[in-house]
Design a protein that fits this description.
Blueprint: H1 8-22, E1 26-36, E2 43-48, E3 53-58, H2 60-63, E4 75-85, E5 90-100, H3 105-119, E6 137-142, H4 147-159, E7 164-169, H5 177-191, E8 196-201, H6 215-223, E9 228-232, H7 240-244, E10 247-248, H8 252-259, H9 263-298, H10 302-345, H11 347-352, E11 357-360, E12 365-366, E13 378-382, E14 387-391
Parallel strand pairs: 3-5, 6-7, 6-8, 8-9, 9-10
Antiparallel strand pairs: 1-2, 1-4, 2-3, 4-5, 11-12, 11-13, 13-14
Length: about 400
């Protein structure tokens, strides 16, 4: 039996045809290693287990559909077809889809993006904005035909009046939904008339809600200057949008209730505030009333001041007059006493008791000693009653006082 000789390239092509005809679709489980994704967008890695390894290639058209990023060491299940890389004659797997082993790709993508955004601080409470107390315009990013917008409008209509709702309709699931949601959030921020945004949709499967787990939507919410309330799915559903938003509402209905306070609650609150204000004002008025009464007692009009000063001058004048009278009377009494004392010392009083005062004429010198005169001098004699003139006819000797 003769064997024909073939070239290397021919033999490799035969191997390739054989593999591609018999292994059109295979599922292979293994560990990712040597993963790389150059600028071309294609992915290249090795799939291995404890006894072998297989080179894998995933072209850009399939790689862009991945919901998670494969990492070295990750256990995955690859779906694809067997082939041969003819330039090197190597067996390889052309991968068309990858799923994590033991966990869904969507869930893994969710966890990966969650971890990435958390590390950047997009979930931090300190960056979240407070909702306005009384918004006048509410921007809504959701489907124009879905149940969510009807639920939101019903709640707003019931709880408040005079509100303006600015709807920016978008697709909320399927290809291109994330892009539309991202653009809608940016558009409402640029437009600037809304006070707060509600971004969300009604319930659905994980695949239906996936647009709100896209990184572009998360970053658009984080970049919004307007407060954002995320309302995606039902109460048990959590999305990346919920984590980034300023406030998470379990449903679109709850979002509307959180954004707008109930009219009856506001009325009750206003009544309570009015009662508190009334009590405060009543207390303040009472304080002012007491203060006014006190100031009024202290306040004196100019006429009253003049009258008070006039009366005070009158009182002072009366006191001065009484003081003068009293002093005059006191001086009069003292003068009388002094006069009586002086009168008692007066020579006239001595003369009245029988004594006489002799004076030498013509000088009028009082005579106290006979040596002052001589016989023939003229003298005047002052008596108690009257005066006489006499001529000295004789001078007697001085009599000495006798002891008794």
């Amino acid at each position: 039996m003769s064997v024909s000789v073939v070239s290397v390239s021919r033999l490799v092509e035969l191997f390739k045809d054989l593999l591609e005809e018999n292994f059109v679709e295979v599922l292979v489980e293994g560990e990712v290693s040597n993963f790389s994704q150059p600028n071309s967008g294609h992915c290249y890695f090795t799939l291995k287990d404890d006894r072998g390894q297989l080179r894998c290639a995933m072209f850009r058209s399939h790689a862009r559909l991945l919901r998670f990023f494969p990492e070295n060491g990750m256990q995955v299940i690859c779906r694809g077809r067997a082939s041969v890389y003819t330039q090197r004659g190597e067996l390889q797997l052309i991968v068309e889809g990858i799923e994590p082993a033991g966990i869904g790709g969507m869930q893994l993508a969710f966890e990966q993006l969650k971890k990435k955004l958390a590390s950047e601080g997009l979930f931090a409470s300190e960056r979240k904005q407070a909702l306005p107390e009384f918004p006048q315009t509410i921007g809504v990013v959701t489907s124009a035909t879905g149940a969510a917008i009807h639920d939101i409008l019903n709640v707003l209509r019931r709880r408040a009046t005079g509100l303006k709702v600015l709807l920016r309709p978008v697709r909320v699931q399927g290809e291109g939904a994330a892009k539309e949601i991202t653009e809608a959030i940016a558009d409402l921020n640029r437009e600037g008339s809304a006070d707060v945004l509600i971004v969300g949709r009604g319930g659905g499967s994980l695949e239906d809600l996936w647009a709100f787990n896209e990184e572009s939507v998360a970053r658009a919410i984080a970049a919004s200057k307007l407060p954002v309330v995320s309302a995606v799915g039902h109460e048990v559903d959590f999305s990346i949008a919920d984590l980034v938003a300023d406030l998470r509402a379990p449903t679109p209905t709850a979002a509307a209730e959180l954004v707008v306070k109930n009219r009856e609650e506001l009325e009750r609150h206003c009544d309570q505030l009015l009662l508190r204000l009334g009590r405060v004002l009543q207390g303040r008025l009472e304080t002012l009333r007491v203060r006014y009464a006190h100031l009024r007692r202290r306040l004196i009009s100019p006429l009253e001041t003049l009258e008070w000063r006039r009366q005070r001058l009158i009182d002072r004048e009366q006191r001065r007059q009484r003081s003068i009278v009293w002093r005059q009377q006191e001086q009069r009494n003292r003068l009388q006493q002094l006069a009586e004392r002086l009168n008692g010392l007066s020579p006239l009083q001595v003369l009245a008791r029988g004594y006489a005062l002799a004076r030498l004429l013509p000088q009028g010198t009082p005579l106290q000693n006979v040596k002052q005169i001589k016989v023939g001098d003229l003298i005047s004699v002052q008596l108690g009653q009257g005066q006489l003139e006499a001529c000295v006819t004789g001078i007697g000797a001085e009599k000495k006082a006798q002891e008794t």
